[in-house]
Write a structure and sequence with these properties.
Blueprint: H1 37-44, E1 53-54, H2 56-67, H3 71-85, E2 93-94, H4 142-156, H5 162-179, E3 184-185, H6 188-203, H7 219-226, H8 246-252, E4 258-260, E5 267-269, H9 279-294, H10 300-315
Antiparallel strand pairs: 1-2, 3-4, 4-5
Helix pairs in contact: 2-3, 3-10, 4-5, 5-6, 5-8, 6-8
Bound molecules: protoporphyrin IX containing FE (HEM) and magnesium ion.
Protoporphyrin IX containing FE binds next to helix 1, helix 2, helix 3 and helix 6.
């Protein structure tokens, strides 16, 4: 039975995370890495299993310990990913390619593709990874990183910060609209595209930096995380739990969810899977459409674990001041 997710750790201040107990080690044959520079780094330093295959609980512990990710964000991101890309029977998720290391697959149309799978969690217009249409959606892309550096030079005085993130996020969307006939930024991807753009300056800057230095990511450090999957020497995690800031990035250049229909430069608004602007619409459609398409008629342990993971996912969703969930829970597979 999948265990309930870990809560927040007792200590949530800055601390050395590139420590003796977590040395960087180069990849061994068969080790899996993927589109997320945060998880790649955690695996290469042993906060996650070094082979890149982990349970949701291991991932939540690792992102909290290694990057001080705030507990609700950690649970939300992890269960979203696990529900669509993980093996719900074995409770294992690959942070990259599909692999037999997650165990026997449930019947199709389930994919269990790992985080590399395009269109479930991974999506277009990433900052340092190409669109799946161009053939590689998960490896570090030097051309895109050169653009990341150019934007940091022009808008951030040589540093990647929230201003640069707002500009580059918008530019990557325009770039994909103009070049990728299959460009899509709908539902979950509309949300993650903005959230993830806020992550570099919030998570990858040493937690001891204060004042004018806070939130300013230098290029050597950026390269260390994005390309090398490595903490800089002596790196301290953030000084307080980080919940991300999709809103700040979005407000710099608000852009609707949508996709190219019938070729490049044919962006069409599409809010049929919800978006950052319609969070409960995202939740309901993610469960009732996206997940139901992968698991139309689950039986036995699979159905039980789907319901358990759906419950953990729902518990990570936003609450109002009185602690009441903002969205109404949906039960595509019944209530137990
Ligand atoms: C991107 C998963 C935690 C930083 C991604 C992507 C996935 C993912 C699937 C690819 C999306 C795309 O760009 O197409 C996860 C999961 C997490 C997690 C399941 C579990 C909590 C973190 C943490 C950090 C982080 C803790 C930072 C320390 C990033 C960044 C990107 C990204 C910066 C964007 C990369 C780019 O645009 O080139 N993540 N992530 N993630 N993630 Fe994570
Ligand atoms: Mg992507």
């Amino acid at each position: 039975v999948p265990p309930p997710p870990p809560g927040p750790p007792a200590f949530t201040g800055a601390k050395l995370v590139n420590d003796k107990a977590h040395p960087f080690k180069p990849l061994k044959k068969g080790d899996v890495r993927g589109p997320c520079p945060g998880l790649n780094t955690l695996a290469s330093h042993g906060y996650l299993p070094r082979n890149g295959v982990a349970s949701p609980s291991q991932i939540i512990d690792a992102v909290q310990e290694g990057f001080n990710m705030e507990n609700e964000l950690a649970r939300f991101t992890t269960y979203v990913a696990h529900l669509v890309d993980g093996n719900l029977v074995t409770d294992l998720l690959s942070i990259g390619e599909k692999t037999r290391k997650t165990g026997p697959d449930p019947p199709p149309p389930a994919i269990v593709g790992g985080l590399n799978n395009h269109g479930t969690f991974e999506g277009d217009a990433s900052l340092t990874r190409g669109d799946a249409f161009f053939g590689d959606n998960h490896n570090f892309n030097q051309e895109l990183f050169d653009q990341f550096k150019n934007f940091s030079a022009v808008y951030g005085n040589g540093f990647f910060n929230m201003t640069v993130a707002g500009e580059l996020r918008f530019h990557r969307i325009q770039q994909s609209i103009a070049t990728n006939p299959e460009f899509s930024l709908v539902g979950l991807r509309h949300l993650t595209a903005y959230a993830e753009a806020s992550f570099p300056s919030l998570f990858f800057v040493d937690g001891r930096k204060t004042g004018a230095e806070a939130g300013q990511l230098d290029m050597a450090t950026a390269e260390s995380f994005f390309r090398d999957m490595m903490y800089p020497p002596d790196f301290f995690r953030p000084a307080a739990p980080v919940a991300g800031d999709a809103g700040a990035i979005f407000l710099a250049h608000p852009f609707q969810p949508g996709r190219n229909v019938g070729g490049v430069n044919n962006f069409t608004v599409d809010d049929s899977l919800g978006s950052l602007l319609d969070f409960c619409g995202f939740y309901e459609n993610f469960v009732n459409k996206t997940l139901k398409a992968l698991y139309p008629n689950p039986k036995g342990v699979l159905r039980r674990n789907l319901n358990i993971n759906l419950q953990f996912f729902f518990e990570s969703l936003p609450k109002d001041e009185s602690g009441t969930p903002v969205c109404t829970q949906v039960f595509p597979y019944g209530r137990n």
